Amino acid sequence: MSSERRLLSILEPLFELGPASIDVVLSQCADLIAAGLESEKVDAFLYEGASDSLVAIGTSHTPLAALQRRLGLNRLAIANGDPMSKVFRSGECYRTGHADQDSTQPRGVIDSLGVRSMAAAPIDVAGVRRGVLSLASPRTDAFSADDLALLRIVAHDVRNLLQPIIARVSLMRERADGEGRTPDAQDAVRALAGLGRLSAIVTDLLDVARLDTGMLALKRDRLELVALLRATAETLRPPDVEVRVDSFCEQLHLQADGDRLRQALENVLSNAIKHSPRTAAVVLALESTRNATAEVGKIVISDQGPGIQPDLLPRIFDRFVAGEHSAGLGLGLYLARAIVVAHGGTIEMHSVVGQGTRCEILLPLVHEAEAGLS
Fold it and tell me: Is residue 372 part of a domain?
C-alpha cells in the first residue's frame, strides 16, 4: 500500500471518531495507527507536569501494549533521558531497528517487552509541545523512514493538516470566479464554510483534551475589559442582527489571557446571536460591582430568543450538551465556563422560554497599581 493510502486509512477514521474522554479517543487513534503502520504497540504519551513525566494516556489494544500495562511500563520520567524524553525535549524524531543496542532505552522495554524497533515523533498542539507518539515492535528493522514520516504527520496538530486543503479550495474559488464559473465558485464557498466549521470543532476538541489532562495553561497579561468586549462584539456582529455594547464604566482592568477570555465571550455571544430574532438586539452590558470578597467586572449578555428549555438549563455548561437545533458538538459553553473559572470568575445562565436568555459573567478586577499601570 502506498504512503498516501496508508495515511488516508488513518486520517479518514480519525475524523469520524465520536465524542469521548481523552484517554478513549487517544486509544482509538492508537488502534488506527497500529493497523495503518503495522505496529505491535502504539502509545500516545502526554506530558504530566506534576511528575515531570511522559504518561501513555492512549495505548493500542494489542498484546504487547497489554503486557506494557500489566508491567506498569506506561510512565517515563523525563529525567531518565530515554529516547521518548529526548524526542519530547528536542522536538526531533527517533527511529531504530535495534533498540537493544541503545544504552538509553529503559531495560524493562528491552528485557520485559522485547522491543527491538521503535519510532517516535513529537506531539505539538497549537505550537506547544504536549507529548510523544511512538511505535514499537519486537521485530528488528520494523519501521522504515516512510513510516516515521507518516507518524510525524499524524502526530502533528490536526488543524495544520486542514490549512493546505483550505488554501487549495480558496485558489479553486478564485479561479472559478475569474473564469465566470459561478456554480463552481459557490461550491467552493460552501466547502470553505464546511472546512471552517471542521477547524472550529477540532479546536474545541483539542481544548477539551487540554482540560482533561490539566494542560489548559493561561498566559496572563494586563487586559482592559471594555475594549475586549467591544472588539468581540465587532468581530461577531452580523449584518442582520444588532449587537449593542452598553458599558457603565470607561475602563476596567484585570490580569487575564486575552485570547482565552475572548474565546469564552465569543462562545456565549455567538449562541445569543444565533438564537436572536432579527428584529431584536443582542446586548452586552458591562459594569463594575462587588461580590462577597472583591471588586468584579460584571458582563451580561442577553438576547430575546426562544429561551432554553427548563430540563436543559441546569446542564447547559456540561460537555456535549446542545440544544435541539444546535449544529455544534455542545462544547462551546463548556469551554466558556472552564475559561471563566480558570480566571477566578463565575458564569451563570438564566432563561425563560419564550422571553430570552441572559448570561452573567463575573471576573475579578485589579486596581491600576496592581495591573502595572502608571
Answer: no
Whole-structure pTM over 0.70, yes or no? Answer: no
- For position 296, which CATH number holds? 3.30.565.10
pLDDT in tens, 227-274: 999 998 888 888 888 898 888 777 889 999 888 899 899 989 988 998
Domain count, the chain: 3
Task: Write phi, then psi, for 192 (nearest 5 degrees).
Answer: -65, -40
